[in-house]
Task: structure prediction
Amino acid sequence: MVSKTVLLACCLLFLAVPGLQSPASANTTEQPAISLVDRYRSALEVDPDNLKLRYYLGVALLGRGQTADALMELRLAYPEFQDSVEANYNLGIACLQAGDSDSAVLHLEQAEALGATENPDIYPLVDAYYNLAVINFEQDKRDEAIRLFKRVLTMNPERREVERLLGDMYARNGQDDLALAAFNRYLGAFPDDVSIREYVFSLHFNYAMKMLEQEDLVASREALRQALETSPESPLAQYYLGYIDYREAHLDAAVTILHRAYRRAEGDVRQGVRELLYNIALQLLEQRKAKSALDALRVILLESDVTAEELFLAGNIHLLLSEFVAARDSYEAVLRKDPVHQGAILNLVTAEAGALDALFADGRRFYDQQDYLAALSRFEEMLKINPADPRARNYSEDCRSVLTRQAERFFAAATALIAQNKPLPALEETRQGLRLIPAHPTGLGLEKEALVALRAQIDATLANADAALADQRFADAEAAYLQALQLEPENVRGKEGRQTVARLRLAYAEEQVRQGESALGEGKLDLARLAFVAAQRLEPALRSAEEGLAKTDALVSSLVIEELRWARRAGVAGRLTEARQHFQKALQLREDPEIRAELAELDAGFNRKITALVRTAGRYADKQEFQRARNIYRQVLTQVSDHTEATLGLAQLEQRATQMVTEKLAVARELLRDNQFRQAMESFRQVVDIEPGNTQAISGLEECRTRSQAQLQGLLTSADTALQGQDWSRAENYYQQVLKLDPYQRQAKAGIEKLDVLRRKGLQAVDLDTLYLDGIKYYTGGQYAEAITAWQQVLQLNPEHAKARRNLEKAQRKQQFIKDRHDG
Result:
């Protein structure tokens, strides 16, 4: 089901944001991202051990898409930022972009442990985990993908689209129960997703077939029932449910479900349903349940290609029900298809004998009710079977006599009306009489006379019909031709006109279908729908129009679902413009108040998020965390360019930054004059943190390092001498003095770390968190052997430490990969 990688945008926390305003002058303009990277690199040439600057450089590089370079800088800076939510998050995103899913999970989980979930607008971990899950799925790491998707749902249960992907992965793993549970949760949120409904149907149906092969009819029935809950009108599932009912001798239930299936079934499925219904009818007849048998056969007997055997079975059923006339009709139909059918020949004799008695009884009943026309039809039917039957001959003659007298009364009335120049009512009276005696010469003469008088009206009506036909007003033409034929049923022009209407209407409807199919192929769904609807109005029974309309509606529904899926993903990722575009496309496809409500909620949610971001930026500004505040203000303005509060907040921030740069430079220069190198260096670095390219701060840092170099080197030499003499306390004292002068001094920090390792004689439970974090630090620095050792020690203290176990496996994979590449 995952046809392509879909990565939601994850926010990068640019502490040093491309395009910052320089606080040194109110007239400075925004600098491009490349200038910012160069400024950080220039600062690092003077202050190479400044891990904070290196971190800023890594984030700036990441913003430019230089992932490999960014990762190198971020990893070098990591020891300084090990406890930073921000740094772990950004490292996770960088690893994700580099395709290193193991490392990405490690850092994102650490960011989560440090509190990233408290600021979801700043650290959208849900989207990051989602992207990682997709990447792991495509790398065939399904278990890890499933774990991450579950984490997404734990963090945000509203992300129901994740259930769709989970269901697909479970299905691919053969875990059908879990797949169905996930898909059902997804369909609870998105019930119109046809593709998932079909997926769920196939899972249930395939299981049903498996159980049927194993002769477990109970399990197969339940699976088919569940399949029909997803696709209620599936003829295939209905067929197999009917088959199971047939196997279990629930014949009436089988007939009910099979009739439903027969209405929609096509091809082999329809033929299979037909054969099963025939067998059920045969079995019911053997059980002498004739009415149920006839009901089973009912839909088959309506078919134009009904077979001789099906008709013969119908005749036998009618015979058992003593419905002799129907039985006779069935046997005669059999003999028209198969003149030598012995069963039909024999049973026809019995049916005809019974039919004579039945017809006579019916005829006598109608005769006693004085319904002579109905009685006559029964007696004449008897005479067709036996022309010499005296009962039928006597009663038919009597009926004709009575009907002739009744007809002559109508003719007399018609004659009077013609004399009064009232041809239309005269025609009506005449036809009342001809209905009783169709070939009566008086009636035929009167009809002809009335029609002559009505000729002008008939001709005018036919002319109107012709005009309507020429204008392709088929309904009006049909009505006018029919009106003319009601006056003159044998009118040739009227009959031919109706035939022409039917032919042209069908041709026009078929042309509309062709146009609809063409529009459908070109993706013009509105035009396609109009064409299919027009075809249906012309020919309501035209199956191609019905199918085309159904196909169009299904495609519209599918496209709406797809647009909504993309809209929701973009909305969750904060891409409002993209989300709105997809919602608008969905509404263009189908106007829906629920979609409009969802779009309104998206706008409201976006406004809430923007408000929260502006407030967060304000809090950072109050704490003088200028880079963070700038980043968030710019993030807001990227999405809402005219946001008043963000624009004002950013302007005020830059004013405060400019003022602080001026103050810090003055303090730093004063401290440098007093040879207070550590404090001066700290102030200069604070300026560089605010404005990386400030030349005064960079020059000041360079002067501080030059003037303090001799003192630092002496302390480092003393520390190394003490370390070699195993005087660890004295060595640590010298290293600490170095770090007081320069907190970023690389050699001193390395010495402190070395002392920590030498002092660690035995493991205590209190060391567990330190060891775990050391493992992350080693892993990030590419020291996989050391990371493995640290996490193995964690597991010695706590064998249930799940993160340490997962990270240990990742480090071992990295180490093996490097070994394999080296050996190769």
Summary: The radius of gyration is 45 Å. The first helix runs from residue 33 to 46. The CA atoms of residues 38 and 693 lie 8 Å apart. DSSP finds 38 helices and no strands in the chain.
